Structure formats: C-alpha cells, structure tokens
Amino acid sequence: SARVQRIWEFDQQVPRVAQGSPCAIELDRDIDASRGDLVVRQGEAVGNTRQVEADLCWLDGDPLIAGKKLYFRHGTSEVQARVSEILYRSDIRSLERRPGADGLQMNEIARVRISLAQPVAVDRFDSVRPTGRFVLVDAASFQTSAAGLIRGFTA
Q1: Where are the beta strands (DSSP E) in the chain?
Q2: Parallel, antiparallel, or unpaired: how do β-strands 109-122 and 97-99 relate?
Q3: Residue 32 — very low, low, confident or very high, per pLDDT cuts 50/70/90?
Q4: What are the angstrom distances between the C-alpha of 86 and each of 58, 98, 115, 153?
C-alpha cells in the first residue's frame, strides 16, 4: 500500500477531484500502478475477482453459447473471459425468469456467471455504478457483443 502525496488535474495540484474525473496522482513510494488501477482508502473492500454474476443484454447478431471466448472490458482493463453458465433468461414482456437457457439470441437478457482469466477489481452495480458495469467483446471480430451489470462476485 501507499499514500497519496499529491493529486494533479491537468497541470494544477488540487486537494481532491470528483469521482470519475481524470487526474494524476503521486504516491509516497514507488509501486506498480498504472492507468485504470483502482485507488481506495485503506481498509476499504475491493472485489478483486475472477468470477462475476451479472445481468447481461446480448447485443450480437450471432447467438451467445456458454463457453464462447470473449473479452471482458471493465473501465480501462480488458481480460479474456467466458460465460460459464446462463442461470436464467428474463422475459422482457412479463419479467418472468426462465431457467435452463443454453444460449442467448440478440436482445435477450439473462443472469449469467462469467469466468475471467485474470482477477479484476469490480463492484456491484447497485453500490458503485462506474465499476459495476462492463461490456463483452467478441474475441474473433472485436465487436461489442453484450453489456452487463455486475450483481455479485466471488472474492
């Protein structure tokens, strides 16, 4: 861990910045930190995980098949991922949950489990919206395939 010594907004030193504002920080020691890393108060919980449960809207014309190779884009990070399980689909007309889906078609919404190749620092969407959302990108075409809201994760 390290302490923040200075915060810079453009070329001015400032005492604080608003959440989501671009800034540069100087730490009191050299550590391996880079663009996109989360900075939190000491003792504050961070969900560093390789397993995410999320509500997912499938946007791709090609159907989602569980296990398909994708990229999980979260903030400025991107890691390999796969949808390991489709827990249920949501009927958009009745809002009923329909279990047992093997795949998703365009514009279908589902609760899914996503396995990540590397740990990513996430939050539940209900708690911190900017770090509780993500997109999935097709590994072959690099087209955005889905948008998701994180509902839970395994620490």
Answers
A1: 4-9, 12-14, 24-27, 47-58, 64-65, 69-74, 77-90, 97-99, 103-104, 109-122, 133-138, 144-154
A2: unpaired
A3: confident
A4: 12, 10, 12, 15
Determine which helix (DSSP H) or strand (DSSP E) holds 85, and give its type and residue range. strand 77-90
pLDDT tens track for 12-31: 999 999 877 888 899 999 98
d(CA 97, CA 91): 6
Backbone angles phi, psi at 123, to 5 degrees: -135, 165
Which two structure tokens, joined as six digits, stand for 116? 């990540």
CB 84 within 8 A of CB 116: no
The separation between CA 11 and the C-alpha centre of its own chain, rounded to angstroms, equals 30
Residue 145's contacts (CB-CB under 8 Å, 6 or more residues apart) are 58, 59, 60, 62, 64, 70, 135, 136, 137, 138
Q: What are residue 14's DSSP bridge partners?
A: 7
- pLDDT for 45: 65
115 neighbors 81 (Cβ within 8 angstroms)? yes
Rounded to two decimals, the pTM is 0.82
